[in-house]
Amino acid sequence: MDHHCPWINNCVGYYNYKFFYLFITYALLILFWVSATSFLNFLRSCASPDVLDFGSPSFMIVFCWLYCTLFGVALGGFVTFHTYLLIQNFTTIELVEKKGSPARGKSYVHPWDRKARLNIEESLGTNPLLWMIPTRIGMRGNGVRFIASDEYRAIMRTERK
Questions:
Q1: What distances in angstroms separate CA 150 from CA 13, 29, 109, 143, one per listed residue?
Q2: Residue 64 is among the residues annotated as catalytic for this protein
């Protein structure tokens, strides 16, 4: 499990993380598209005398543009955070657990970080052409067993000796 998402009212985990990631990415792209394409109308509406008249077309255009832009900025941070998690092969819970680990004097080695390309393939599938398409084609694994990183396996071998 990665986390519980109130937006989709469901837990996000191995089998639906790709769909969650695509959902927030596409939502961000749509918000920025609306902000970009309505910018000139926004500027014209700001200069309109009825911009402060609640319910007028000018007010609605300004409100819509501000809402989409501000929500897009906030969602942009969220997508950036999840892109970081995707590249590092972390779940949200693992990232929180990692922050408490250096307290004992040991540096943290993430057991599932197999470099960016393999980490992305773990969540989005093996075919880069299908990464941004909501499909399970090319997905591997069962969500229970994962391949550990070479660095982590080397540490575990030396600790066993």
A1: 24, 36, 11, 20
A2: no
